[in-house]
Structures are given as C-alpha cells and as structure tokens.
Amino acid sequence: MEKIKNDLLPELHKIYVKCKAKSYLENIDEKSVLTILRQILRVHGYSLLSRSKCSKRDRFLEYRIIQVE
Prior knowledge:
Blueprint (H helix, E strand, L loop, with lengths): L1 H14 L2 H7 L5 H14 L2 E10 L2 E10 L2
Antiparallel strand pairs: 1-2
C-alpha cells in the first residue's frame, strides 16, 4: 500500500480519468487498489479473478490474472 501511495500515485494521476481519479485515487485502500488493477488489466486484455479459499479454518481470497480472449 505504501509503495502504491508513494511511487505509483503520481503516475496514476497522469493517466487516470479525472472523474474516476477523485473516487479511486483519494483515500486509497486495498479495495480501491484492486479496482484500479482490474481497470488497468482490462485495457490490456486481462482480467483479475478472485476465489475464496479455506485452510485450517482460515478464510482468504486467492487472486489470478487471466488473459481474456
């Protein structure tokens, strides 16, 4: 999160649509980072899939990047 805020945020402001930048680039959190990643991947023909998994009573999300045909 800190790397995105410090290093990538200025670049994202340059390329991001202004109306969406206000929503997604202000007060960045994990959910907004995933949304930004999904939007950028979509432009390049990829998609981000998430799947819930359980292991020893712990639940977590697994993410995969796939190429869209």
